[in-house]
Amino acid sequence: MAMFSHRCLSHLLGALLLCTFAGAGPPARAQEGYYGQLRGHVELRNPVHDDSRIVSKEISAIYQKNAAPAPLPFEPLNFVVYLDEIPLGRLIPTVEKPAARPRFVMDQKGLTFVPHVLPILAGSTVEFPNSDPVYHNVFSFSKTRTFDLGRYPTGRSKAITFNQPGLVKVYCDMHSQMNAFILVLANPYFTLSDENGNYALRDIPAGVYKVKAWFARLPEKSASVTIRPGETTTLDFVFQ
Amino acid sequence: MTANFIDGGDADSPLRYNNGLPGFEFAGELFVNVRISDEVSAFVDVETWRGWEVRIYNAALTYKISGARLQVEAGKFAAPFGNFLPRRFAPQNFIYGYPLYNDYRTGLTVDDIPGGNAALLGGRGKAFINTGLPLMARQAYITGAQFFGQLGAFGYHLGLANGALSNPANISENKRPMIFGRVHVQPLIGLKLGASLANGGYLNGALLKTTQPDLQSEKYGQTLAGVDVEYSRGYLVFYGEGIFNRWKSPLIREPLEALAWSAEIRYKILPRFFLAARYGRIHFSEIADPTDLDADGKFTAPWEFPAWRLEPAVGFHLSRHALLKAAWQINRTGRPTGDPADNLAAMQMTVFY
């Protein structure tokens, strides 16, 4: 029961924040003396070769006109760092125009999903355009959001709205090597690391938070952090 | 890996399965695709058959002469005929069964020849002991070499192999190689049209030598011509095929012809659920029937009984890698002495990676 209440509160906060901010991400105008920053680095100690993007003989033949994507030597370093919970007292009073639902794009290009990892705020809509000269059929059987968009050709796009926080594993029913992740988050305090694993979260209300780092192949990492007004806090994660 | 539970009818017909006894079946399939260099790759498909007997269905080397436009493949590979063979595996086959042209066994065999029209007509509908030739073998993997490639929206295959599509021999069984070819075109995304042709010797010359020492088995061949269509859009996928077949048999003057067609549809009703069905028919040409075996006053008769099959199915994805299917196969053969049902119920669970 306690867990249920906790999750409900978390979702309620997510919805409230969605109404509060104009789009995903923290408020544009931070109040000085109230906010701090979180920076850091995420490291993957044992990266593996990324076989998922090596296209098969059959697909290469279909795709011959446009060069197939070259196999990547190692898996892409897509880390998502986010604040797990925002206590009620930390809600930010900045109110801009009522938010339109943020829209994101996950393209199907070169027989891959681009981007491979997409963190979004709950309530956001993701467009899935088909930019390839072949059919695609985006689907997910994830509990967070189960859907199947059917087959559609080049230039067409279909969209899905993700209201419930959680992980959505996205696949193509026609090209088994295509996969991607949509991480639906309950608050706007999240970011995707750069290619070197560096990240920064700005305009965080001062306080104590649980911070999580997510990587597709490995269990999440979490740590507790104290954000002080006007200061930058450093927090690193290591996946191995 | 695939596990089946099958319960079929026990009627005496070419479509009888496992003598009508219900039971479980297991099949394992392993695919290995190795890229040896930018130009050379190898593909091997090893499968278990009716239990634990291991068979190699596909073992071929491919060399890219000019990218994807011109490639050559040698070894044992799937016959480029029609649009069913590439999707015969449980995860790709929306229903349980195969098309009728794979399953319906005629009175012709590779190691014996009918003594004449009366013998052939008298044996109609009795090839249920698994020796009769279907129009095309269920596992039509042929041993030979082919050129294939893609030129814009067009694809092509052309090659030589052992045997015939009804008898795809691993080693040559007569002096007549099979020549085969296929062209297909994709005029727009989601629509694919194809035409295929194959001609080869179906008789086993070595085995026939004992009973027919003077027979030149290479003179008697099988010609198979087919057209196929594939269309998909949204949640719908449709496959259609038409096949014309002609065998020549030494002691029968008329060509032994057959016409088969099938239409197949799948529709996803929910993200995990789909409904599917295939309907197919097969008809055989008429030959002289001097004794009026059918007692219908006509002195011609089809050399095999016609048949049709309807197979509706429902599928449920337990996960991305696990599929559960239930299918109900309704089979009818046009025997003059009645219409024995060879219906078959199947449950199939397949796990694939």
In short:
The complex is a heterodimer of chains A (240) and B (353). By secondary structure, chain A is mainly beta. Chain A contains two helices and 18 strands.
Notes on the structure:
- The complex is a heterodimer of chains A (240) and B (353).
- The longest helix of chain A is centred in the N-terminal third of the chain and has 19 residues, at 2-20.
- A 5-stranded mixed beta sheet of chain A has the order 6-12-11-8-9, with no helix packed on it. In chain A, strands 1, 14, 17 and 18 form a 4-stranded mixed beta sheet that branches.
- With 240 residues, chain A is mostly beta strands.
- The model of chain A is unreliable at 1-31, 53-69 and 93-98 (pLDDT under 50).
- Chain A has helices spanning 2-20, 57-62, and strands at residues 35-44, 80-83, 103-105, 107-109, 112-114, 117-121, 124-129, 138-141, 146-148, 157-162, 166-172, 179-185, 190-192, 198-205, 207-215, 218-227, 232-234, 237-239.
- In chain A, a hairpin with a 6-residue loop joins strand 11 (166-172) and strand 12 (179-185).
- Chain A contains 2 helices and 18 strands.
- Chain A has a domain at 2-25 and 54-195: Immunoglobulin-like, CATH 2.60.40.
- Chain B has 3 helices and 19 strands.
- Chain B has 353 residues and is mainly beta.
- Chain B is 4% helix and 52% strand.
- In chain B, 39% of the residues are buried.
- Chain B has helices spanning 100-103, 117-122, 205-208, and strands spanning 2-8, 23-27, 29-35, 40-49, 53-66, 70-78, 141-151, 154-161, 178-188, 191-201, 221-233, 236-247, 256-268, 273-284, 286-288, 300-302, 307-319, 322-333, 344-351.
- The model of chain B has no long low-confidence stretch (mean pLDDT 90).
- The longest helix of chain B is centred in the middle third of the chain and has 6 residues, at 117-122.
- The A-B interface holds A 56-57, 60-62, 64-65, 133-135, 139-141, 146-148, 150-154, 169, 171 and B 33, 41, 43, 62, 67-69, 150, 152, 155, 188-190, 232-235, 237, 268, 270-272, 317, 319-320.
